[in-house]
Design brief:
Blueprint lengths: L1 H21 L3 H16 L1 H4 L3 H13 L11 H11 L7 H12 L11 H4 L3 H19 L8 E8 L3 E8 L4 H9 L2 H7 L2 E8 L1
Parallel strand pairs: 2-3
Antiparallel strand pairs: 1-2
Helix pairs in contact: 1-4, 2-4, 2-8, 4-6, 4-8, 5-6, 6-8, 8-9, 8-10
């Protein structure tokens, strides 16, 4: 019970920061929903628990807050804002992990040349890769910011992961972006990602 209360309190604080920076939370909420569906559907692959699920949720809610400083480099701004925000009720290491997951939702993949990533232990770096891999795909699945994907089911095969996406209409941009942004996922989980869009 105490852990659930704390988790709810943390979620409220994270959501409040996201709302302050973003205003319109439509894309943020969509990406968060999809990221958590991926996490839940791929448990046999990542073998992470509820604490790590919470970290993914926080990172998804905060992944675009850097937009408040402008679009260019907003993923890096998101990292800086998460790490520097002492009002977030997270310890410094957890803010660094969440910020790193958010930072890698676009552009460059994790690298030990990045100071924030190099500052993490190897197990923490692996966690960042596992969760950022999911977040990148989720972000791709809302490429147009039009909530075209209503939900996603995951099927794990020997060499690939099939993401069966329920859509409310054509979503070619989302399909293309999700495949492109599955680069980290493929690297860390060693499985190809196949997207299947299903209308209805």
């Amino acid at each position: 019970m105490a852990r659930r209360i704390r988790a709810d309190s943390l979620r409220s604080a994270v959501t409040a920061l996201a709302q302050t920076c973003m205003g319109d939370m439509t894309h943020t909420q969509q990406v968060t929903m999809l990221a958590l569906q991926l996490f839940d559907g791929l448990g046999d692959l990542h073998r992470l628990g509820s604490a790590e699920r919470d970290l993914l949720e926080y990172a998804a809610l905060l992944h675009d807050i850097g937009w408040v400083r402008g679009w260019r480099g907003h993923h890096k701004s998101s990292l800086e804002m998460i790490v520097d925000n002492l009002l977030l009720p997270l310890d410094g290491k957890t803010r660094l992990i969440v910020g790193s997951i958010a930072r890698y939702h676009r552009k460059a993949l994790p690298s030990k040349k990045h100071d924030h990533y190099a500052a993490l232990e190897e197990t923490e770096q692996l966690l960042v890769c596992k969760l950022a891999g999911l977040l990148r795909v989720a972000d791709g699945l809302d490429r147009t910011h039009e909530n075209r994907v209503r939900g996603v089911r995951c099927l794990i095969d020997q060499d690939e992961v099939l993401l069966r996406c329920s859509v409310n209409g054509p979503a070619p941009e989302e399909e293309k972006a999700a495949v492109e942004k599955a680069d980290l996922f493929t690297q860390i989980y060693r499985k190809k990602v196949t997207i299947r869009m299903v209308t209805g």
